[in-house]
Fold these 2 entries.
Entry 1:
Amino acid sequence: MIAAAGRLDDVSEDGIRRLVDAFYVKVRADPELAPIFAHTIPGDWQPHLTKMYAFWSSVMLTTGRYKGNPVAKHLIIPGMKPQLFERWLALFEATCREQFDNATSEAFRIKAERIAESLKLALFYRPDRPWPPEPTP
Amino acid sequence: MTFVVTDNCIKCKYMDCVEVCPVDCFYEGENMLAIHPDECIDCGVCEPECPADAISADTEPGLESWMKLNAEYASVWPNITIKREQPADAKTFDGVANKLKQYFSANPGQGD
């Protein structure tokens, strides 16, 4: 269903595609995130977008369409910093609010924050250092 | 943060969770499943899928021993991503208290 101002009021495969497409337009224009993604996805973006449709479909619609190991994938990305997750989340949340009504974008935000925290812990948590980590320059 | 499999999975092992997990982080023991804490991304998709309510967020109090058990056995049991038929007597054991002590098997399951 499409609510006022063209914002969707439920999660569907179509809505997820719209969200992912709009989100990565922002990512690719973002001074902090664009170089990280450009390095990891130097050519055709469609395979990544298709993978992300499946990922969010699995997370939001419980379809089991995505199968992968995002922790391992993130571990090998050069130049990862904890604050990049904050930037990612800010853009994602902004895109959710553009595409979905408040309740639906909130549902996306909650999932995204949990997953981001979990990936951050996997990448940066060390038992002998403070958590959350100090921002690195 | 991660999700953990707890007592009520033992001898129920419905395996609905393994189908929906996006990151294939379930490992199969003879009569229980375990979540690998380094692979789980805390998406929470599995939690409501469990017919036995055996999956909890590790932020809930009192789960330390289950976190340890999940971590220990997820690293030695085989990976499972495809649901099979649950044990014939799963329903009989659903809700039985303190199954860990009486029934837990450290033996690996068959995996995929």
Entry 2:
Amino acid sequence: MSRKHKAFRGNSVSVGTEAVFHVILCVFAICCIIPFIFVIIISLSSEESIRNIGYSFVPQTWTLENYRYAFQKMPQIWRSFFNSVYITVLGTVISTFMCALYSYALYRPDFKYRRFFTFFSFFTMIFSGGLVPTFVISRQILGLGENYAALIVPLLVSPFNIIVMRTFFMSSVPLELVEAARIDGAGEYATLFRIVAPIAKPGIATIALLNALAYWNDWFQSLLFIHSAKQLQPLQALLMEIQKNAEYLNKMAGQLGAAAIMEASKMPSQSLRMVLVVMIVLPIACAYPFFQRYIVSGLTVGSVKG
Amino acid sequence: MKKFFALLLTLAMVCSLATLGLTASAQEALEPVTLRMWFHGSTVTPDASAKVMETLNPILQEKLNVTLEPIWGTWGDFDTAASTDLQGGASADIYFTCNWSMDEYNKYARDGYWVKLDDMLAEYAPDLLELIPQGLWDCASINGYDGKGVYAVPGLKDTATQNCWDVNGTLLAELGYDVDAVCAAGLDYFSPEFEEMLQKAKDAKGAGFYPLLIEPAVLERMATKTAIVTGDLSGANVLSFYYDAEHPSTDLGNKLVNKYGTEEFQKFVEKTYEYAQKGFISPECQNIETANNFRTACQTKGEYLFGTQSYSFGCEIEYSVARGIDVRMVPTTAAYMDATSGQGAMMAISASSKNPERALMFLNLLNSDPEIMTMVNYGVEGFTYNKNDDGTITFIDEARATYSPWTNGVGNVRILPPTDGQGVDFWDRFSAYYDSAEALPIGAFGFDSTDVSDEASAVVGVYAKYAMNLMSGSVDPATELPKFLDELNSAGIDTIVDAANAQLAAYLGK
Amino acid sequence: MARNMLKEAPNRLGMSRLARHKKTLVLLTMVAPAAIWLLLLRYLPMGGIVLAFKDYKVNPRNPSFFSNLIHSKWVGWKNFRFIFKNNMAAIALRNTVLYNLAFIILGIIIPVAFAIMMNELTHKFVPKAYQTLMFFPYFLSWVVVSYFLYAFISSQYGLITAAQRDAGEAVTNWYKNTGPWPYIIVFAKMWKDVGYTTMLYLSTITGIDSTQFEAAAIDGASKWQQTLYVTIPNLRTMIAILFIMNIGKIFNADFGLFWNVPMNDGALLNVTEVVDTWIYRIFTTTNNIGQSTAVGLIQNVASFICIIGANAFVKKIDEDSSMF
């Protein structure tokens, strides 16, 4: 009887252990999602309620006013949303592609300059010239500024991603496969796209997700480069702008005097800011399952035995 | 055929010579120039900006052959974006600058980013010389990389400082006081009457009501009757200048002192701690990040008795309307002109601009031509505002919300048309009020802390630890104030104070 | 073995020199795009490090960045002096290193444990759900997190303080009391990062050939033994790499966390001030680009030394897992 029971569960942990796992993971997962639920609640709270009792899980009055205001009175929101999507999609595709190429070369132990290029990319993680020199070169040599390129190019390459992807390749793609492909006469690009990439799909999907997040969440490039072409501003930058305005007026209240008060009363309210947060988090959260399909699945297509 | 071509050729040559001649004479007139101008504190959408520029630029082209390309910097991003832009090889011709925030005016003048204007004013900006009073030019004259002079055009806005108690007249009347009498008599922070009023309000309104709505730094200056010194570690004021409350221009010795080591400061923090313990000050006011939101919320609801306010002429009317209560402003001292108000909003011309002369001519036009100033500041008639018969204007709220530059940050506000809320003769009264203010004896003095920057960095850290909490009454001064003073001393505050006094003496010519 | 095979392949399998060169060339073209990007946007600006040794001023005759840089006066170590006169420097450094150590250690134990746990769950859609939920903190900015925390512990409206008041206890003024904050900060950082680190490890685990597990089970290994002898060894490269990179960042701190979550309250600075917030505070006051570049340079050099050290350490244990 017990043997049958054991066979049914195969090579898995006992039910009791699994239950414990579930509890631990579940509690942590709830901890993770609660703040976001809280954000949604604030975005549905009335400004009155916030003024009276502050942020609360149970506001005095619920309202859709904030969302209506955001969508109707801020046409910029839709433009920013489109910008964010455009930049993220384009940026993710290009950067993941560039990363895969570089990591593949690093993964090949017979690449003559392997150590050099590993160090070449890694060194930049440690040493940096600083914000202003990078900004100057971006603007003057690469011609970035007031255009989409300024929002995409600065984030294209991340040494961290390169190293991680190389590690994925090393852990999941046995070198015998590459050797076998070479004997079959395949070139490097063919080997990469037809053999290595399908196996390392979880790894590539992971890096793609990290890239997508980096682009989706970025607001700093917009702050530096986009000054007059505000129609190119992505969604996070819009939120950050509002946030920083509020912080600044806070800091300078004593010196700006009367002007600060009038300005502060014109600021979008706290609940409106939460609407923006919801708009920023929800799309990427919805995109996540798309990536996850590739990340959690992934079985080695058995082409090499034992 | 040949003859025909020969004729054609001659004709062509004659024509081109003629055009050459024409262009030669046209070149004596102005070439078309595009000026990029970077504003601060704006709330302007790209569409609204395009619409206004559409109407404005033809006029500018006609008058000066200039096309204006505005960059509408916002409150939050101006400091980072503009300073990175400047340090990376400035891309704009004209920048907003001032002496607070990151003290860009003084620092950048010293570093060489701003063009020195003194010699150019007579030729390119004669109207400015007339319009802006000498006192204001003096307040803007500083030590830059090219010697003492004016490195930016000062903005003719509220040019004097006066700190007032923001009194909730409606509540005061409810508590049984004669509002006019109380306001006329003035309010003394340390007096038992003041405390009594606070206590009555607290008792009447309950435990959740906090009658004293303070901005700690402003409160400190009001209670101790001191002024801000320009260049004083922006945001971490450690220098105090004491002035005569009734006649600010009186010479009281002109010494700068360590603000926190004075008896006045000790008295002030002890009193504030007492008030906080009695429940007059809300914990929200004691937290840097949340204080402003809280204050704004309370003001909108009228839930306070006394607040602190840096006065701007006519604001009590605006506030009364916005808050629905009777707002009174009770000054603690007379109004005075100092570098803070004089250098509060200026427009500087960047050293890397290709057309500094034209930029100055444009500033001259902007500050003297009501039509241009109105368009830049308020927008276009019919789009953002409507004209009334008596000469005032009324804003069209929705459109105005898409085009809201920071009025005081553009330049000479006195040539703007008054709004219907301000009243027809507003700007006359405005000018009368501000022009009557006396100037502080230290005038435009700005402290240059680059030589003591090591000590300055250390002092800033100590300030961050203690100052806000002490000034808002959230920690016990008996234990914390001595610690604060000790750490300030070991950080080198005396070096800073001595350096400041030495510079002040040199500036005053002693 | 395969590695050596591949290295010697050219000779053993008669790959001609031409073919070898061609292969190298092709691989170089793969490296090219990212390498050019790195050259332009990372190596070229490194020249800016010289700002740490100069007193940056605008050259009035030709105010472009490069000419300013060239004409500014060389001042040697002057921009570094302020660090020694500054009493917060040591505190900031201590806080940075201690917090980072806690983050590194916990940042290995917890995500690995979670990844292993999730891999063992039988119904495959459940770990997907957990993973999605655990990822949410990564999406939220620290500013939003600070609001959330504030809603719990603010003196006036906070949920916890209200509960304390109702129970008749004395209300703790959370933002003026340094005691709980180290724990709050460590928990906050773990809460934010565990989701995505777990994902990295889980991706690695799913890439492990299942035949290894089957073979071990057939050999009679218990679940725990399988974990110890199959799963963890396969994870060691990823663990090692992340460890090395995090050690490299040990002198850098997550600015958003330390600036926003404690609401920038002065009373907490002794436990919440880290190198990045400390230099930001100074830079916004003195606006001295030489000083901020100087601190950045020190951070860089220190990171470099640490990484080389960590890499050597890892190499001693397991050659393949090291970075280079």
